[in-house]
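Give me structure tokens for this 456-residue protein.
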Amino acid sequence: MSGHRSQTRMRRAAAALAALLALAALGAGPAAPTPAAPRVLTVEVNGVITGGTAEYLLAALAKAKTGGYAALAVTLDTPGGVLDATREIVQAMLASDVPVIVWVGPAGARAGSAGVFLTLAADVAAMHPTSNIGAAHPVTGSGRDVAEEAGKDMAKKVENDTAAFAKSIAAAKRRNVDWAEKAVRESVSITAEEAVKLHVVDFTAPSLSAAVEAADGRKVRTAAGERVLVTRGAALEPYTMTVRQRALAFLADPNVVAILTLVGTLAIALELYHPGAVAPGVVGGFCLFLAFMGMRVIPVNVGAVVLILVGVGLLVSEAYTTTHGLAGVAGAICVVIGTLFFIDRSSPDYQFSPGALSVSPWIVWPTPIGVALALGFMAYKVAMSRRRPLKLGAPGLVGDAGEALSDVGPAGGEVFVHGEYWHARSATPIPKGSRVRVVAVDGLTVTVVADQAQTG
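Here you go.
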């Protein structure tokens, strides 16, 4: 009896416990959803920084803002770039509501010249342990000091302006202002470990993902105010270039622009030599269109472009005027000089690292000389054809050779000349199958003689 009562009490206790658990579950409501992992937009900057790079990074910053990304992470490896494009990028970074993480990598990468400014402007800056940063002294396109090509006054002006630019960025992001100035004035360059010790960057990281992880929890100052980065376990989403941005990056190579300019002018010249061919004109126009687009991306000497166009014009004129080769030689010289000075090396508005933007010697010499020779040869052929007598219609048959299709004599016969069948006569008999040459044309009848060059 007592055992039965014990079992009853246990059942009642279990039922009460189940009821309590059910009530607790109802009171707690639905389970809280698991927070989504943060997202970080990633971009890569490799090579020379130009206007195309600026457009790419500005588009990435806009996407990071509208897409609600936790940060924009930039993998940087550059020898330098155009100062105007660098300023545009830095201004956008400083005005960004989205934190920017810059990682100088991969192994052996460098943040040279313009890359220094981008790294200093980052909210979080990291470097691969084997990378380096520095050497931001402004120079010209040939790698020479500004004073050598633009004068001491201009050199001092450019240096002071660039140094102030670097110091203002470092101060805004609480980095080493003194080192930023030395990087410009003294071209100092340091390793990743030294950069961390000097407070130029925040830390070293072996990969971009490691840099993003290490940035978690850091307090940064953006244009929208202070915020704490939440990047632990973030999903990295790459931002690829659009077709336009890829085209601009391709056209940022001065060698490409120089070749497009020469090929375009050559094709236009071919169209002038053979009006109505259409294809050379279309190809030439397209090449020149791309070349002019590239000239908006990189600093091109307008005077050099004019020299190239004048040179091609002189080569074309050689075919239509009697200059005894003077126009052709002058045109070839203009093309070569124009290519030599294709990149603007003295403008104070465009300062970049040594060798970052330059035309290869394999483009400077062989290409324009080849184009000049090709155009000169065409000019020679056209000039020679203009000196030959015009041969049209029946009179053009005089002197042409053919074959006797029958015996030809004073009474007549038939010959095949100039791809046509003709009635023929000859003062002396000519047997069938012999080679003949036309000496006169009378209506639809030709007078022929035996072709001595063939029968002799």
